[in-house]
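Contributing new records

If you add data, match the layout below exactly. Sequence lines come first and carry their own label; structure lines follow with theirs. Keep one chain per record. Anything else will be rejected by the validation script.
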Amino acid sequence: MAAKLTRPLGLKAVLGILGIELCVLIAIVVTYVVATLSGEVKSLPTMLALTALGLLLAVWLAFVIKALWSGRRWARNGAIFWQLVQLAIAWGSFTGEFANAAIGIGLILPSLAVIGLLFEKSVFAATQGEIPND
């Protein structure tokens, strides 16, 4: 009988952080929908485009999380890409009219944690193929 494979703690941490990021993204999309339906937006086409983009990103991120859970190799690239996007947004949040350092730090810390964990030896090994369902 083959030994049951388990996910390393680092991979579980990555999945948890990505799950929280997905929940925040869904909350932002819901906020956009509520603002649009209540008529609080200045530009309807812009808000509709942002809502559609947020929804597509949420679906894509959920797909990346599912693939990481299954140990798919390509999902690491998707997770790293998402973290790099967040780092770019964080960089912009430190300057400008609506600068907010708390947002920048809140995006930088989990992004760096996920990138670091994805390159940890046990996480890298666990995402080289498919992990059997627990």
